[in-house]
Amino acid sequence: xxxxxxxxxxxxxxxxxxxxxxxxxxRGILKGFKEAGLNALSFEECLEKNINFDVAIGFxxxxxxxxxxxxxxxxxxxxxxxxxxxxxxxxxxxxxxxxDKFLALGVTPAxxxxxxxxxxxxxxxxxxxxxxxxxxxxxxxxxxxxxxxxSSLYDYEKKLENLKNLKNGKMLFELxxxxxxxxxxxxxxxFFEVCNLxxxxxxxxxSLSDFVELYNIATMAVEQRQKIKMVQNLSKFNVKVFxxxxxxxxxxxxxxxxxxxxxxxxVEVMNKSKISLHCQPYQINKGLHERFLNASSxxxxxxxxxxxxxxxxxxxxxxxxxxxxxxxxSDKADYFLSHDKEREQKARAAREIVLKNHLWxxxxxxxxxxxxxxxxx
Length: 377
Description:
Layout: E1 5-8, H1 21-35, E2 39-42, H2 43-49, E3 55-59, H3 64-72, E4 76-80, H4 90-96, E5 102-106, H5 112-118, E6 123-126, E7 145-150, H6 156-163, H7 169-185, H8 191-202, H9 208-232, E8 239-242, E9 256-257, H10 263-271, E10 273-278, H11 290-297, E11 301-305, H12 308-314, E12 319-321, H13 329-338, H14 340-357, H15 360-376
Parallel strand pairs: 1-2, 1-3, 3-4, 4-5, 5-6, 7-8, 7-10, 8-9, 10-11, 11-12
Helix pairs in contact: 1-15, 6-7, 6-9, 7-8, 7-9, 11-14
């Protein structure tokens, strides 16, 4: 392990991505490498001071303008996708799948089957989200918010409607509709598994471009419909939603739309909340997510979708709802709002799990293990 120098793209910047979440990831992992006792600098510092490095790492397309030069120089370039490798960054994986020195880190093991089938030459491994405990601090503030949700919406209805205007649009619209319904009814199935069901029933084959197109349209629609249904099933509660203005179209009852917040401003609001809501995005099926890791780091109880991965990691320290039907979410919210001591005890226990296993320094150590043998040789 000794001697490896890591260079982090945008590790120096305070801004980047929606509500600056991406920037917080970049800064967080740079700090995580240093906290783990590993040699790491920002890529920008390496350029400025002409410092040699062995491995360059960035989230999503951070530093993409330098990747080709890094790879040509014989160094390793790590692309850390914050969602599925078949989502917004699929073109990156297709472009670099045949490069030996290119490594893709993804946040869901549900992508393994699809990657093996459609991107067989891609160096890919699972590396879940993490959190920054120095940012998401438990400040011990008075809990003045009952339930909060930090999440934005995308206009999936318009996107689906636009499909009808494409060549063979009616057929594509119907196909996507079938896929969406299967995903909604069985949210723990991987998208690859869902497509195999469709392929067997319809006797069709999907190319890589077909798979990526269907993936992006369908999974985005599934995620939006799930979030909307989750919030609407909590209409009798004092839920505060932070995100983009599209929420105003869907909120009902006592739910309030509170506007958008930068990630740094979210910490204060989170600290003042009893319950943080989380509906696991379909694109991160079978993985973890920074939303509940952040909440737990800040000492806040999470009410989230019941998935095997999350439940295995956090046990009964979270509240879980059925995110195929959402029929039990209201009762779960009512129960945990009414049992302060139990909720607070579970939040403390979840915080201990996060501080032990899910900080950026934990991910830095796991990443370092991937290269330790190669460097030693």
